[in-house]
Amino acid sequence: MAKNKVGLNFKGFEEYAERLDKLGGDIKKATEKALQATHDHITPNLERDIKPHRKTGRTERSLNRDAKVKWVGSTAEIEVGFKLDEGGLPSIFLMYGTPRMKKDQQLYNDIFGSKTKKEIAEIQQKIFMEEIKKTMEG
């Protein structure tokens, strides 16, 4: 299981979802598409930035490369990052540091950085805008 999950998080999400719903669009499809795009944006950066830490390759192999959107009631989420139960535990120490080791800021930023959050918000918003446009055009 990966430790980190992301959801939809961009300014005006509720308005976009409401507009799409009123137009008869598929909110579930748009949500899944936006979350998958989020995963697809984060994962290559993690792949790149974990490489310098390679000793056995186990942590690198634990990267969740094929996550799928999961629904719990009306909430959707997708896992990003490393599967802790498959060798990804060291990723926590790398991202947060230890008393003897500084954290890898870039690895941390790949998931939690303000630039990443901004990029993700733009990706998600764009997908919802495209879905609204498609629905309006028929």
What does this structure look like?
- The chain has helices spanning 13-22, 27-50, 58-61, 89-96, 105-112, 114-137; strands at residues 2-6, 70-72, 75-83.
- By secondary structure, the chain is of the alpha+beta class.
- It has a three-stranded antiparallel sheet.
- Strand 2 (70-72) and strand 3 (75-83) form a beta hairpin.
- The chain is elongated, with a radius of gyration of 17 Å.
Oligomer: single chain
What's the helix-strand series? EHHHEEHHH
Class inferred from helices and paired strands = alpha+beta
Q: Give Rg in angstroms.
A: 17 Å
Low-confidence stretches: none
List descriptors.
about 55% helix, 3-stranded antiparallel sheet, alpha+beta
List the helices and strands and how they pair.
Blueprint (H helix, E strand, L loop, with lengths): L1 E5 L6 H10 L4 H24 L7 H4 L8 E3 L2 E9 L5 H8 L8 H8 L1 H24 L1
Antiparallel strand pairs: 1-3, 2-3
Helix pairs in contact: 1-6, 2-5, 2-6, 5-6
Offer a quick outline of the entry:
The chain is α+β, with helices and mostly antiparallel strands and 138 residues long. The chain contains 6 helices and 3 strands, in the order E-H-H-H-E-E-H-H-H. The protein has a 3-stranded antiparallel sheet.
